[in-house]
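Ticket #4471: structure export looks truncated?
Reporter: QA, pipeline team
Priority: medium

Steps to reproduce: submit the single chain below to the structure queue and open the exported record.
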Amino acid sequence: MGKRHGLFFFCFAALLALSFPLFAAGGGALQQANVNIRDTASIQRGAQTFTNYCLSCHAASYMRYNRLAEDLGLDEQLVMENLVFADAKIGDTMTVAMTDADAEAWLGKVPPDLSLISRSRGADWLFTYFLTFYQDASGGWNNLTFPNASMPHVLWPLQGIQKPVYATHDGHETVDHLVLATPGIQTPEEYEDTVRDLVTFLQYLGEPSAVKRKNTGVWVLLFLALFALVSYALKAEYWRDVH
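Actual output as written to the record:
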């Protein structure tokens, strides 16, 4: 009986862990990002969005510009001209000029390094997060996926400004859905594509060697399959004399 109970609780815990990202931070079900880290063009576009809108506050200190150029098949001079806006060199990591002391004084806290954010949050969470910023009654920014987030919506010129539509459930007023009150310079479809590219880049940042690792894994599995066939043939040859 004890073993059955142990198995039951193990399965329950596993299912709970798997379902948690779907309802993380009280934001409801997550939207599917459908990122493809083999899409080099998407990563390139995401890298440009990241350096234009995110890198002024958020570092990606585990990534070097020359590694980025190599992985994405870009010329180093092209990277320096389009992705480096400070006095960094091609071999430097993607850090920010703002010091921790200045960040605390100006922003109240040091913005987190985003090198591993996709490993921590997941692509679907990030995708939904960037889509669910809205302007509340106070005129400040809030987020359905991460309520009371301290980060402003830096991509609002692209998306526009969303406003909440409230509904009352069990006597409590909650945000039912968001409406686009002020359009941005991109259509909703274009903005989703931009966010998908950005999340693809963040997914790449979390494990830059993922594509090479998966390609190597295919060859390893093929080798093991061939080795298994040779081993079986060798075993059959040996046992033929025994019989």
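Status: closed, not a bug. The export was complete when the record was re-opened. Leaving a note from the reviewer for reference: DSSP finds ten helices and six strands in the chain.
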